């Protein structure tokens, strides 16, 4: 099957990511079917997709009429047989649980036509963990999205059994929905950008949590040398401090690590004060006018 033959995309899991992937694919002309476990979730997803569409209209990326056409391409169902019958490609965005993902793929392997390519949007797992469960390991790989409102990068991560033809189909599909893709040569939890991002966060968190440098000075250093508009703590405010805490708490428990526990405790103090980051109006910085965005944040020169 060539990418030109892909007409219908099935999204499994109509949560935060399924909504975004469904929207961007419909915007590029694909028929999209959203599948989730109950109709309330699908109704909520439809409302959120409408909001994404409105944002695109407001920012001039779509006209109102185009927005309506995009929304008309998205259907939803709670019936697996209906969802999978005509799918040419699947994007799975169910919760981050390898057993659940394996079960879902096995279920849809029985329903979908033999040509259907299966992809997973997992953040931290690798496709070989459930390749066999798909029943079509050669037609399966990870296709991982970031927030489509902020970026247009996707990671493609094949497992050792993914066929070259499948990789090409996924690459072409990604490009056809306006995404820049990177295709990994080996499996690696966290993909490319997120691997670098977590190392960057970790070193910044270590400096501040151990009292070596202040949050502001860590960001100031990064922004001053690289001449970029934001440092690691500004970025963590966007990601959300709850997520940052969860990651550190997870590794602190799993590795019984003092290093991660020190960082988790440091972040927890912000959470205890209701500072969750950008979404709550305050994290390391106060919004909507964070200190780091002010002209004299980096520049302290007297002349
Ligand atoms: N949130 C992010 O920023 C982000 C970014 C990239 C990748 N991911 C990955 O995408 C996946 C989904 O994340 P999310 O943030 O959209 O989660 P979410 O919780 O917003 O959505 C998950 C959806 O899956 C549905 N679901 C549960 N069981 C199901 C089943 N058996 N069949 C079909 N649907 C089912 C849930 O009802 C829910 O609507 C995860 O694997 C996550 O790691 C998340």
Could you characterize what this model shows?
There is one protein chain. With 303 residues, the protein is α/β, with parallel strands linked by helices. The chain has eleven helices and eight strands. An eight-stranded mixed beta sheet has the order 3-2-1-4-5-6-7-8, sandwiched between helices. Strand 6 and strand 7 (153-158) form a beta hairpin. Helix 10 packs antiparallel against helix 11 (258-272). The longest helix is centred in the N-terminal third of the chain and has 20 residues, at 39-58. The N and C termini lie far apart (64 Å). The mean pLDDT is 96. It binds nicotinamide-adenine-dinucleotide. Residues 12-18, 35-37, 41, 93-96, 104, 121-123, 144-145 line the site of nicotinamide-adenine-dinucleotide.
Which short descriptors sum up this protein?
single chain, 303 residues, alpha/beta, 46% helix, binds nicotinamide-adenine-dinucleotide
What's the gist of this structure?
The protein has helices spanning about 15-25, 40-60, 65-70, 80-85, 100-110, 165-175, 195-210, 215-225, 230-240, 240-255, 260-270, and strands at about 10, 30-35, 75, 90, 115-120, 140-145, 155-160, 180-185.
Distance between the termini: 64 Å
Q: Biggest β-sheet: count, sense, barrel? A: 8 strands, mixed
Q: Quick one: how many beta strands?
A: 8
List cofactors, ions and other ligands. nicotinamide-adenine-dinucleotide
Order of helices and strands: EHEHHEHEHEEEHEHHHHH
Strand content: 5-15%
Q: How confident overall, as mean pLDDT? A: 96
- Categorize the overall geometry: globular
CA radius of gyration is 21 Å
The unreliable regions are none
This entry's quaternary arrangement is single chain
Structural class: alpha/beta
DSSP helix count?
11
Strand order of the largest sheet: 3-2-1-4-5-6-7-8
Helix fraction? 40-55%
């Amino acid at each position: 099957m060539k990418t030109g033959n892909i007409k219908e995309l099935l999204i499994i899991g109509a949560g935060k990511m399924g909504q975004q992937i469904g929207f961007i694919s419909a915007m590029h002309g694909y028929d999209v079917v959203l599948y989730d476990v109950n109709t309330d979730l699908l109704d909520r997803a439809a409302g959120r997709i409408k909001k994404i569409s409105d944002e695109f209209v407001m920012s001039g990326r779509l006209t109102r009429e185009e927005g309506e056409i995009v929304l008309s391409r998205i259907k939803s169902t709670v019936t697996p047989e209906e969802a999978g019958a005509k799918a040419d490609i699947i994007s799975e965005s169910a919760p981050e649980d390898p057993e659940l993902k394996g079960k879902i793929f096995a279920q849809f392997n029985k329903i979908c036509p033999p040509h259907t390519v299966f992809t997973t949007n997992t953040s931290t797992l690798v496709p070989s963990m459930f390749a066999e469960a798909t029943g079509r390991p050669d037609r399966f790989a990870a296709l991982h999205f970031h927030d489509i409102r902020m970026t247009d990068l996707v990671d493609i991560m094949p497992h050792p059994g993914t066929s070259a033809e499948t990789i090409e189909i996924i690459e072409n599909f990604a490009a056809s929905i306006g995404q820049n893709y990177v295709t990994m040569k080996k499996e690696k939890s966290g993909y490319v950008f997120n691997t670098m991002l977590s190392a960057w966060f970790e070193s910044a968190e270590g400096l501040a949590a151990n009292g070596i440098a202040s949050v502001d000075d860590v960001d100031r250093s990064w922004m001053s040398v690289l001449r970029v508009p934001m440092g690691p703590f500004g970025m963590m405010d966007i990601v959300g401090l709850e997520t940052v805490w969860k990651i550190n708490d997870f590794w602190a428990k799993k590795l019984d690590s003092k290093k991660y526990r020190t960082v988790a405790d440091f972040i927890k103090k912000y959470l205890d004060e209701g500072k969750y980051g950008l979404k709550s109006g305050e994290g390391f910085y106060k919004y909507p006018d964070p200190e780091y965005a002010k002209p004299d944040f980096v520049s302290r020169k007297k002349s």
